[in-house]
């Protein structure tokens, strides 16, 4: 139980961000995303929770937890990224078709539904990204097809179906569904809304990452007087981690927090990338209870940032994730939290790291540490009831014009 592997990144630095990095994440693009997303019906900043009891237990100054379990009633931080990337892409398509600029707010109000009814948004997903893309398609009134691997969450599939998407289960793992989705967009009118890429730069995956930076702007507004010394953030293909690391690098430069990436031991493609010195793919059985992090191939666009802004990579086992999940959902951290196993992974990494004397010393975790973590998703147990209670009636009313 605990930390399985860890590695400090010898290439991490605190120098000014490059134009290549700012093309993906910048203060300007983050502000633009927030200005737009604030206009969306149902937007509200998610809570920044103070886990004082856990901080006292671990012997650090403070632990903050950005709780994404209520984001747009969809229960995940990905509600920001996929929907934003999808809407920006449809904006561009309409500009190419008729030479006019339309706002995302207009698109989400359904004012251009007839013009885009032939468009099919397409993506691969472990669950949450597909929900976000389906959410955007429902609001804009265009079609949506999701490719979802065979072990992915049934609750998330049901949410996509309730949002009007067509869901195809695919053999293999998430990375296999990514390849299937890329082939599918050869169909007329289909457009890929990817949250990962094998290219150095792709516009839509960059905009997905930019959507995630809204969380960082909210955090700065919610706790303007305290700069974290450490941030523990989940890995996956790297999109969320790149949003966090890239934003903090430009905003705080040499004062930026130490950024630690947390991955499942069985699916540590970012740690493998750090060891290889390039965005890498790992093979074999990637299965983990942290299903949203079950990714074997790092996103090249995310690696552009992480290769120089992630300070350390650590891996945890499933038992650690389960124990941390239970700890958080039972209220032992100071608040009772609605969180899934993947959502708990950042806190799990923190708890495991601080109890490893060598790693804690290497990361300079001590009584003065101020730590930011992300509860990236709600638990599946609350997802169906949350949809029934909140999200589904909202969408039905919107379709009726209420």
SSE layout:
Blueprint: E1 3-8, H1 19-24, H2 27-37, E2 48-50, H3 52-58, E3 62-67, H4 78-98, H5 104-108, H6 113-116, E4 120-125, H7 128-140, E5 143-149, H8 154-162, E6 166-170, H9 174-184, E7 190-192, H10 203-212, H11 214-222, E8 230-234, H12 239-252, E9 258-264, H13 269-276, H14 300-309, E10 312-316, H15 318-329, H16 345-354, H17 357-363, E11 370-375, H18 380-399
Helix pairs in contact: 4-7, 4-10, 7-8, 8-18, 10-12, 12-14, 15-16
How would you portray this structure in words?
There is one protein chain. With 402 residues, the chain is α/β, with parallel strands linked by helices. It folds into 2 domains: 3-76 and 208-382, Rossmann fold; 78-199, Rossmann fold (3-Layer(aba) Sandwich), CATH 3.40.50.1100. It contains 18 helices and 11 strands. The protein has helices spanning 19-24, 27-37, 52-58, 78-98, 104-108, 113-116, 128-140, 154-162, 174-184, 203-212, 214-222, 239-252, 269-276, 300-309, 318-329, 345-354, 357-363, 380-399, and strands at 3-8, 48-50, 62-67, 120-125, 143-149, 166-170, 190-192, 230-234, 258-264, 312-316, 370-375. The strands form 2 sheets. Strands 1-10-9-8-11-3-2 form a 7-stranded mixed β-sheet, with helices on both faces. β8 (230-234), α12 (239-252) and β9 (258-264) form a beta-alpha-beta unit. The protein is globular. 55% of the residues are buried.
């Amino acid at each position: 139980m605990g930390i399985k592997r860890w590695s400090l990144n010898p290439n991490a630095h605190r120098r000014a961000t490059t134009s290549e990095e700012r093309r993906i994440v910048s203060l300007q693009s983050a502000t633009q995303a927030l200005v737009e997303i604030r206009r969306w019906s149902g937007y509200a900043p998610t809570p920044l929770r103070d886990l004082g009891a856990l901080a006292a237990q671990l012997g650090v100054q403070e632990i903050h937890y950005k709780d994404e379990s209520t984001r747009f009633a969809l229960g995940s931080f990905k509600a920001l990224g996929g929907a934003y990337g999808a809407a920006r892409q449809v904006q561009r398509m309409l500009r190419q078709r008729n030479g006019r600029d339309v706002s995302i707010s207009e698109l989400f109000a359904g004012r251009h539904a007839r013009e885009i009814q032939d468009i099919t948004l397409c993506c691969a997903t472990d669950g949450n990204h597909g929900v976000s893309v389906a959410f955007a398609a429902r609001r804009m009134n265009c079609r949506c097809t999701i490719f979802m691997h065979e072990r992915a969450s049934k609750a998330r599939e049901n949410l996509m179906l309730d949002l009007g998407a067509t869901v195809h289960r695919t053999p293999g793992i998430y990375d296999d569904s990514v390849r299937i989705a890329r082939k599918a967009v050869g169909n007329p009118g289909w457009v890929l809304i990817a949250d990962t890429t094998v290219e150095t730069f792709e516009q839509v995956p960059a905009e997905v990452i930019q959507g995630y930076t809204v969380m960082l702007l909210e955090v700065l507004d919610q706790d303007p007087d305290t700069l974290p010394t450490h941030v523990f953030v989940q890995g996956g293909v790297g999109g969320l981690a790149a949003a966090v690391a890239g934003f903090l690098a430009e905003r705080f430069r040499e004062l930026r927090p130490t950024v630690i990436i947390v991955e499942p031991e069985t699916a540590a493609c970012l740690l493998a990338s750090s060891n290889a010195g390039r965005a890498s793919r790992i093979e074999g059985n990637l299965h983990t209870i942290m299903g949203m992090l079950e990714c074997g191939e790092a996103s090249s666009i995310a690696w552009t940032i992480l290769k120089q802004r992630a300070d350390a990579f650590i891996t945890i086992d499933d038992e650690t994730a389960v124990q941390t999940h239970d700890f958080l959902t039972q209220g032992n951290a100071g608040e009772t939290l609605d969180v899934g196993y993947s959502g708990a992974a950042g806190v799990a990494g923190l708890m495991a790291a601080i109890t490893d004397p060598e790693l804690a010393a290497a990361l300079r975790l001590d009584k003065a540490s101020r730590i930011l973590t992300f509860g990236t998703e709600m638990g599946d147990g609350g997802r169906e009831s949350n949809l029934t209670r909140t999200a589904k009636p909202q969408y039905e009313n919107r379709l009726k014009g209420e």
